[in-house]
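FW: tagging you since you asked about this chain on Friday. Here's the raw sequence from the shared folder, copied in full. Didn't touch anything.
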Amino acid sequence: MTEITADIAIKNRTWAFEEAKAVVKRLRAIGRGQVQIPEKGYVLFETGYGPSGLPHIGTFGEVCRTSMVMHAFKTLQPDIPAKMICFSDDLDGFRKVPSNVPNQDMLCKYIGHPLSKVPNPFNSNYPSYAHHNNAQLRAFLDQFNFDYEFVSSTDDCYMAGKFDKTLLLMLKYHEEIKEAVLPILGKERSATYSPFLPISPSAGVVLQVPILEINSDEGTITFEDVDGTKVTQSVTGGKVKAQWRADWALRWHALDVDYEMSGKDLKSSAEISKKILKILGKPNPAGFHYELFLDENGEKISKSKGNGLSMEDWLKYAPHESLSYYMFQRPTSAKKLYFDVIPKAVDEYISFVEKLAEQPPEKQLDNPAWHIHNGVVPKTQHSPVSFSLLLNLVNAAHTDDPKVLWKFIHKYAPKANSNNAPFLDRLVGYAIQYYKDFVLPEKKYRSPDERERKALEALANYLKNMDIGLDSEKYMSVVFSAGKDNGYDKSELREWFKALYQVLLGQDQGPRFGSFIALYGPEETVDLINKALNNEL
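HL: got it, structure written out here
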């Protein structure tokens, strides 16, 4: 495969490269016309996560897309180091108990405490609720081989002093930051708002109380604690938590973040954070706002509603590479995320993988597979059989035994086996599961009418005289002939194929039928036709 040079990459217009160019533009502005390595020694791409719950499909999407932008940047600027961090906002206050965690009564006692101080309700050895969820996040990301560094808000930043310098700067500009946020707040919240949320020395909770006094020279704030005591407390050393819009700007400033994307629902909040960052004296990171996913009814997916498709759902029925492909497609457009999008996404991913090696360099950069696999698709990632074809094989073969399905696959692709085609082997398992849960319950066979019966009989007779292992187009030609010779003119062939799917497979849609015959076998297809004609399906 020809090496992709920066000269080739700079001309590419995919969204990932456009985002990477925005990072280059930011570096050039900071370097007064020169693109240089930042003072910290690398370009920083950030993704954020709130450990109040377990990681979900939105977490995957943000990390996946950010990884694609970082890879595009490395292609544009191979001499500038870059890294991605996944930031866990684990000093945030525990607001409500999720319905899907154990020990609910115990957790209710810790509402308001920093997530990293809430006891662990799970049967695991982690010291807190946040530590458990953070470990789940890392395990979640590691299974996809993302190149990232995990950063804990509590352990790595607030308590370690990494935020101290910026917190003191925020204290200096307390009133300006407050004024930037107040216009979007309601009357009640405005009365108590401060960018600093002190952590109560008596109760250990994150407080949302008025700040009575600030002393930027001493680095302290004064507030009334939950027991009525007037407390003067440092803003450093993990004794305060920045309110989340201010916290976002705090991260950008203290860590010198160069790039972060976020959902469209956070657009107004991001604008406030950018205003705060400007007050603190740093340029905004590059980034864009991706659209949200919709359920089958076109409504926004909500964790609390439980509508739409979860991460676990997708991975039960399809490989994670297909989900990465779905994430790559049009991130600024709202997309339905429901079970019926899975087969098409899998097959489109396979199609792009097959094309990549044959494409010239400039076209490779338009190929989603290049972005999903960082430019190099593993040889084991190819599949000679589409996912939709496998679904119909499971349908026609009436089996959930992978060994039986592989016998059909060997006829179609003699050199393929579960060892040298592991991706195809994975697809077989996914196809069985998807078929059982979504295709089988909706199957509804019908009897053929007189014209359909004659065409099916003709097709069976054609196939009886054909060998196995022929090119799918040869089988396809007799499918056309059987239809044309029995009353289906050119404009009606669509109806002929619909009849094949409804009568033989019990569904309204299906694969290219010549490919199905090549995979299932001409003799087996004849048996299938005879069963349909005898109303035995």
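FW: The chain has a mean pLDDT of 94.
HL: agreed, and The domain at 6-181+242-290 is CATH 3.40.50.620 (Rossmann fold).
FW: great, closing this out.
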